[in-house]
Amino acid sequence: MTTNKNVLLTKYKNTLYVHLYKTPEGNVVKLRPLTRVPKSTILLKDGRKVDFEVVFTTQDHLGKKAYLRLVNLPVSEMCNTVPVIKLKFDRALVDFVLANFELKSIRKKQK
Question: What CATH homologous superfamily does 8-110 map to?
Answer without folding.
Answer: Golgi alpha-mannosidase II (2.60.40.1180)
